[in-house]
Write a structure and sequence with these properties.
The complex is a heterotrimer of chains A (279), B (686) and C (437). Chain A has 279 residues and is α/β, with parallel strands linked by helices. Chain A is 35% helix and 22% strand. In chain A, helix 3 packs across helix 5 and helix 5 packs across helix 6. Chain B is mostly helical. In chain B, a hairpin with a 2-residue loop joins strand 1 and strand 2. In chain B, helix 15 packs across helix 24 and helix 17 runs antiparallel to helix 23. Chain B is globular, with a radius of gyration of 26 Å. Chain B starts with a helix and ends in a 33-residue tail after the last helix. Chain C is α/β, with parallel strands linked by helices and 437 residues long. Chain C contains 13 helices and 15 strands. Chain C has 2 domains: 177 residues, Response regulator (Rossmann fold); 159 residues, Rossmann fold (3-Layer(aba) Sandwich), CATH 3.40.50. In chain C, helix 2 packs parallel to helix 11, helix 5 crosses helix 6 and helix 11 packs across helix 12. The chains are: A alpha/beta (279), B mainly alpha (686), C alpha/beta (437). At the A-B interface, helix 2, helix 3, helix 4, helix 5 and helix 6 of A face helix 12, helix 13, helix 20, helix 21 and helix 22 of B.
Chain lengths: 279, 686, 437
């Protein structure tokens, strides 16, 4: 696969304006504060990782950024436009794609058909034409299928297009999730623990994929437990603990930060078993 | 001023009846996940037993106990024979329709055993008493007492006893309950017995103030269902309060405002309550309006296509599989094609004017409306109980325009369909965000409001007897005055509807809806606007209903409330469920099969003279139950090409058993899920 | 799969086109648009041939109030005629078409009866206005038993009635006003067919001049549904009571109305309570029981088949008829209480048999048109349960005069049994406004 020319240097802080900018995010569920005063920036071509123990609020942050949850306080803007209060489908149309911790299986649709869902945004036929199955609709459908296969090949899974998601192994399911997110042609991709349950080889494949995505100019936010993956791809790392951001910086800097080490029982240098343990 | 208390206290009594029915509904739903539409008929059976055992020799207490026991037994039988054996294989809606069948069966049995006349008995202690200026029969005390005691007992059972908690666990998490050693089947039996017993109790005790006949279970069951739905099928106290509230509102409205429109107030209040609850919630109406204004500027960003692409390899793959993309996982053609061909030939065999021909026409018209409902219920997963209301809107529009204003029939038909579309749009926009059963009652309430309106606004709509004298519609040399001509005109309409339905299902709209059905949040994140898709399919379904309604009026040359009442909604839902929700032909298949069986039953029992209607009702109920017990996902799905091939292959291999295909094949369709009490039919929250 | 779909759809469309062709060639009959009340044509072959039967159709809703009772009356009369050798040697055959009692059901049933080539006429129970345009279209004489007066007023071709209309309500109302302290009426009615007639009929009655009841008025009018419970009716009865009328009219269809009235003490205020013929139906009276004690309604003389029968003028033809018909009916249906609505079925068969006999004896073909024309020009024969049948074009009521067949009847509940008696023993005939055409 050839990739387009890199638009930004990988690593370090990007100089450009952030694509997505979240300031002062607070989320309360009743009396419980899940996220408290968190700032996140996602820059084009830049991989930002968010780590922290279980229950630190990482998934909540992704939900807030993708429009699945309404922040109690705080702002989230994309290119200057606020997304607070918009439905997740609107946020998706504004260029934010995300994957889920448990891959969405879409019972009843084949892999290829689920890949066509985001392609509906690029359809040229009107709804009225859908009712009569006009030539333009047919062209849209053929085009959608073709590009679905395109994206599947990008992650190396073109041959599973006819199968249902549930028939795939977990690793492939996650890759399909990523491919679906990419099919939306987003500017920003939010990845929610994509490496959970993957073995060493699969994680490597995933890491390369993530780098490719960033190299094409997309801004990536990666929520992860797997420190090995984080160390190898992240430009910036944000550490959350109990809903609060306790550190930000490059991967190496963060891994040596005493506050971060204190928040975890495990230490981060071992390449083999790079799992962060719970507090 | 004393009048008000008269209204309130009498309303309270009638509310007690609704409350106890609702309570039974809730208990059964909470523990077993079954929405039991035979609840009204349970009350009827209780009343009948009371009426027939109430003689001078037999003590009243014994009659009451007997009524309770008999109905509890009936309920347990229903559970054993029609629920426990199909629990895990039939979805929530299927189970509900089966219970409907049981209700009809009970009506038939009641007709046979007790005849068609209404019965009543005198009050336990004749006489009246006065309370705050209101005159009340002594029986009122018994009714109030029974309701209070029942509610207290139920609350104690569920909140304080281990048994009650075990029962609650069953529905919330059946697997965990099993692991804890709770016997689910015993709990289910108990739940049904209690639900039945409560209904039997109210049937017996309220009998002096109502009267009971074989068909008196329907209205009561309906109001009880509404009250239970307001409580989310989950909270006994709320259900009782809702039932009482409905009774009081009805009577106070009848007394203070208007007695002919009193039901309109009940349903109206209900509707307002549901919508206000939605408005005030997060993501509610107000927020939506605000956002709708704010979302300008969304489309300004144009994305550049990322050049991630096309190696030669997979282009070839794309071409090879282009055809395969047309694979239709569930739009099976065999049975529907056969049925459609038979339907096309019907006029050649059936005599114009004969009862068979009339039945065939009604089946055809129902099929058109049912196709719309298949889209709404099956593809959109919206449990709309107001479909017949859209048929009604169109029908009356056409009748009023052609009769009262002498419009051209074609223009009137177009306007009728248009009004149905507009109606569907408005109703959908207001109610589609309501979850599961709230949507069902909201749409039901709207339909019932329309019925009250057309029945009462006599000068405008002809009241009960309707509007007669609708002129004929002419297509080339065909005219709707001829039954054969009309049949073919409607048949073409059906084909058009089926074609549109197919196209819609195969298009990106259909795909999006199927995605929303299985993973709503996942679909949203891929840019699918679930609300817009659902609204669209609701409106298309409404258009089909409108088409059916307009044509219906030209067939009958009249529009009357009984054409398109609650019974039609039940029929349509039945057709769609029996035919198969996951198949776009489900509505047609169900209409033809169920309609044909009903016609056969009617014509065969006609010769039985006075007993004809008894057996007709009995057999209709029995057939409905049997259909759903055998064809659990609907006939069209069960007899699809794949399945038939599967059966044949298995028989050849000698395995014999009629298990459906497994492994990677199309899994159970959108509406088929193992039900859990209180869970909305349409599933996922926002 | 897709190809199969294409073939399938195409196949269907082709067969459809073929069918259209057949239909277009066959052509459909255009309807005659006759809207006046009289029938002119009398062509066509006789429907009674050789030794064949005289077929009379019966469109009735079996589950409705009335329902099978209509049929039972038809069968009793048909059997009686057949035992006597039939009409001119032809047996009477009753063909039943069951239909739900909805307007759509009536339409379908009448169509089916018309499509059956052999029937010379049909009985239609519970018909409404939907039947009117069909008569001219399908040309099958229909004898209806319905409370919806507009079915025959104005008249429509081929549509006749075996019943009265407003008189069922006004007869008892007149009695009530006669025995009341004033002229104010409070009324409760339901949304079944007959009900819409009641308020209108009473208002028309009150408009009449020069009568003892002139100037009466309805001071409270309440409407409800027939399945309403006592509690649901209570607000309405309460309002009626509060209006302080001189006469209560409580429609008899739903006995709960009386129970609610009793609960409010309305049955014992000394104010006349009047009702209508629904109270003559045994099941309804049974269900009402003690609550209906004292209610008065315009009832058919055959209702008085107990000891009070002797108080009627035995020389009246209808009285004699009642004596024998009730006996025949009870012999045919032993153990069952006499169904008052059977008289309509009986009348239908008797009238059509008489017409057929006249045509056969005059050697004229028994066609539907001929039957309809004969029905429009009856001159006192036959004498049915509703008197000496007299009609003319524009007045399709196959009845005599009200007094011949109806009398104000009182319902009393004695020792757990329903007893019917004359409302006022001295009154041998009910005074009533007879609307003439």
């Amino acid at each position: 696969m050839s990739a387009p020319a890199a638009t930004t240097p990988a690593g370090g802080v990007a100089a450009s304006e952030p694509l997505l900018c979240a300031r002062g995010l607070i989320k309360r569920f009743g009396g419980f504060v899940a996220v408290s005063n968190v700032d996140v920036d996602v820059h084009a071509g830049h991989i930002t990782a968010m780590i922290g123990p279980n229950g630190a609020g990482k998934s909540t942050v992704i939900n807030l950024l993708s429009g699945a949850l309404l922040p109690t306080k705080g702002s989230v803007t994309i290119g200057g436009q606020s997304i607070v209060g918009r439905g997740s489908h609107e946020v998706a149309r504004m260029g934010v794609a995300r994957t889920f911790q448990t891959p969405r299986l879409f019972d009843g649709l084949s892999v290829g058909e689920s890949m066509m869902l985001p392609r509906a945004l690029f359809a040229k036929s009107s709804y009225l034409e859908c009712f009569v199955h006009s030539p333009r609709t047919r062209k849209d459908e053929a085009g959608g299928w073709e590009s679905a296969l395109d994206w599947l090949s990008f992650v190396g899974l073109a041959d599973v297009a006819e199968m249902p998601m549930s028939a795939l192994p977990v690793g492939s399911q996650r890759l399909v999730e990523v491919a679906r997110a990419l099919a939306l042609e987003p500017d920003i991709v939010l990845l929610d623990e994509p490496a959970a349950g993957l073995d060493h080889t699969e994680t490597e494949r995933l890491a390369r994929l993530i780098e490719q995505i960033a190299q094409s100019g997309i801004g990536v936010l990666l929520v992860e437990h797997d420190m090995h993956l984080v160390m190898s791809v992240a430009d910036t790392v944000v550490v959350l603990d109990a809903g609060v951001c306790i550190a930000t910086g490059t991967a190496t800097a963060v891994s040596e930060d005493p506050t971060v080490i204190e928040a975890y029982l495990g230490v981060v240098n071992d390449k083999g078993a790079g799992e962060v343990k719970d507090v | 001023m004393a009048q008000v208390f008269q209204y309130i206290f009498s309303g309270l009594s009638s509310g007690c009846i609704f409350a106890l029915i609702a309570l039974g509904f809730v208990i059964i739903a909470r523990v077993t996940g079954v929405y039991n539409f035979a609840q009204g008929q349970y009350m009827m059976v209780g009343g009948m037993v009371m009426a027939s055992t109430h003689t001078d020799k037999f003590p009243i207490a014994a009659s009451v106990v007997l009524s309770v026991v008999v109905v509890a037994l009936v309920a347990v039988l229903q559970e054993r024979f029609t629920v426990s054996i199909v629990r895990d294989k039939v979805g929530v809606v299927g189970l509900a329709v089966i219970s409907l069948g049981v209700g009809v069966l009970l009506e038939g049995l009641a007709l046979i055993v007790w005849g068609k006349n209404a019965r009543s008995i005198p009050s336990f202690e004749p006489g009246t008493f006065t309370l705050l200026g209101a005159h009340l029969d002594n029986q009122t005390l018994w009714i109030w007492g029974a309701t209070l005691v029942s509610l207290v007992l139920m609350l104690v059972l569920f909140q304080r006893t281990t048994l009650g908690k075990a029962m609650r666990a069953c529905a919330l998490n059946p697997t965990a309950a099993r692991l804890l050693g709770i016997r689910l089947d015993r709990m289910a039996i108990l739940a049904f017995a209690i639900g039945g017993g409560l209904a039997g109790l109210v049937g017996a005790i309220a009998l002096p103030l109502t009267s009971v006949s074989w068909e008196s279970g329907v209205t009561v069951g309906l109001v009880g269902f509404i009250a239970a739905a307001v409580a989310g099928f989950d909270r006994p106290a709320v259900a009782v309060a809702a039932g009482l509230g409905l009774g009081v509102v009805e009577n106070v409205a009848a007394g203070e405002i208007s007695s002919s429109y009193r039901q309109l107030f009940v349903y109206g209040v209900l509707l307002v309550y549901l919508l206000v609850r939605d408005v005030l919630g997060e993501g509610g109406f107000v927020a939506r309006v605000r956002l709708a204004r704010a979302s300008g500027g969304l489309r300004q960003r144009r994305r550049l296509r990322r050049a991630v692409s096309a190696g030669a390899g997979h282009v070839a793959l794309a071409r090879a599989s282009g055809d395969r993309m047309r694979r239709e996982p569930r739009w099976a053609m065999l049975l529907p094609l056969v049925l459609l061909t038979l339907m096309a030939l019907a006029p050649l065999v059936l005599e114009s004017g004969s009862q068979a021909m009339s039945a065939a026409i009604v089946i055809l018209l129902s099929a058109v409306a049912a196709t719309g409902l298949t889209l709404i219920l099956g593809l959109g997963r919206m449990f709309s109980l107001g479909h017949a209301g859209l048929v009604l809107i169109s029908g009356y529009t056409v009748a009023i325009l052609t009769v009262n204003h002498a419009w051209n029939p074609w223009v009137a038909l177009a306007v009728g369909v248009l009004l149905a579309v507009v109606g569907a749009f408005i109703i959908g926009w207001l109610t589609l965000r309501l979850q599961g059963f709230n949507l069902a009652i909201a749409t039901l309430a709207i339909h019932l409001i329309l019925l009250v309106f057309v029945t009462q606004a006599t000068s405008f709509t002809g009241g009960e007897r309707g509007i007669v004298g609708v002129p004929a519609l002419k297509v080339f040399s065909l005219t709707t005055e001829s039954q054969h001509d009309f049949y073919w005109i409607t048949f073409v309409a059906l084909l058009i509807c089926l074609l549109v339905a197919r196209n819609l299902t195969k298009s990106r709209v259909g795909r999006s809806l199927r995605a929303v059905g299985s993973e709503q949040d996942g679909a949203s994140m891929l840019g699918v606007n679930a609300f817009r898709m659902k609204l669209m399919v609701f409106v298309i379904g409404g258009a089909m209903a409108g088409l059916a309604g307009g044509l219906w009026v030209f067939y009958l040359s009249l529009a009357a409330p009984e054409n398109w009442g609650f019974a039609l909604t039940i029929s349509l839902v039945t057709y769609v469920v029996v035919g198969g929700l996951t198949n776009v032909y489900g509505g047609v298949v169900g209409a033809v099969v169920v309609g044909a069986v009903q016609y056969l039953v009617t014509s065969q029992t006609a010769g039985l003279g006075e007993s004809s209607s008894e057996y007709e009702v009995l057999l209709n109920g029995a057939f409905l139950i049997i259909f759903l017990l055998i064809f659990r996902q609907g006939i069209a799905v069960a007899l699809s090409v794949e399945r038939v091939k599967g059966y044949v292959a298995r028989i050849r291999r000698g395995k014999g058993a009629l298990r459906g295909p497994t492994e990677g094949g199309p899994s159970a369709g959108p509406m088929v899920q193992t039900g859990t009490a209180g869970s909305a039919v349409a599933g996922a929250s926002r | 799969m897709r190809r199969m779909l294409l073939r399938g759809t195409t196949g269907v469309l082709i067969s459809l086109a073929g069918a259209f062709g057949v239909a277009a060639c066959g052509g459909s009959k255009s309807s005659s648009g006759s809207t006046t009340g009289s029938v002119k044509e009398s062509g066509g072959p006789s429907l009674v041939t050789g030794n064949g039967p005289i077929v009379i159709a019966d469109v009735q809703p079996p589950e409705a109030e009335g329902g099978f009772d209509f049929t039972s009356g038809m069968l009793v009369e048909a059997n009686k005629l057949n035992k006597e050798g039939g009409v001119d040697g032809h047996k009477i055959e009753v063909k039943v078409f069951n239909e739900p009692g909805t307007p759509a059901g009536i339409v379908a049933g009448y169509r089916a009866a018309a499509a059956d080539q052999s029937a010379i006429g049909t009985f239609v129970g519970d018909a409404g206005d939907e039947l009117k345009p069909l008569g001219a279209q399908l040309k099958l004489p229909a004898l209806t038993a319905t409370g919806t007066y507009s079915v025959i007023q104005p008249a429509a071709p081929y549509i006749f009635s075996t019943t009265w209309g407003p008189q069922y309500a006004t007869s008892s109302t007149v009695w009530g006003l006669k025995h009341a302290k004033g002229k104010k009426i409070a009324l409760l009615h339901y949304n079944a067919d007959f009900s819409e007639t009641i308020p209108g009929a009473i208002k028309e009655l009150c408009k009449e001049t020069g009568k003892p009841w002139s100037g009466c008025e309805i001071v409270d009018e309440e409407a409800s549904t027939a399945e309403a419970s006592v509690e649901q009716l209570t607000p309405q009865l309460a309002k009626m009571k509060a209006a302080k009328p001189d006469v209560y009219y409580i429609e008899g269809l739903d006995p709960n109305g009386f129970k609610a009235a009793k609960q409010l003490g309305m049955m014992s205020e000394g104010i006349p309570v009047v009702s209508d013929q629904w109270l003559g139906v045994p099941a309804i009276a049974e269900a009402c029981g003690e609550n209906c004690n004292g209610a008065v309604f315009g009832g058919h003389k055959c209702r008085l088949n107990g000891s009070e029968f002797k108080e009627l003028n035995q020389s009246e033809p209808v009285v004699a008829f009642c004596k024998s018909f009730v006996k025949e009916w009870e012999a045919a249906y032993p153990g069952k209480e006499f169904a008052i609505y059977s008289i309509y079925g009986h009348d239908t068969v008797e009238i059509l048999a008489t017409v057929a006999k006249e045509l056969l004896e005059a050697k004229k073909p028994v066609t539907r048109a001929a039957v309809a024309e004969s029905l429009e020009h009856r001159n006192g024969t036959p004498v049915t349960s509703h008197g000496a049948v007299t009609t003319h074009p524009g007045d399709p009521r196959l009845t005599g005069t009200w007094h011949e067949s109806y009398i104000n009847t009182k319902l009393t509940y004695v020792n757990g049994k329903i007893v019917y008696s004359l409302a006022s023993p001295s009154e041998q005939s009910a005074e009533v406004s007879e609307k003439s055409f």
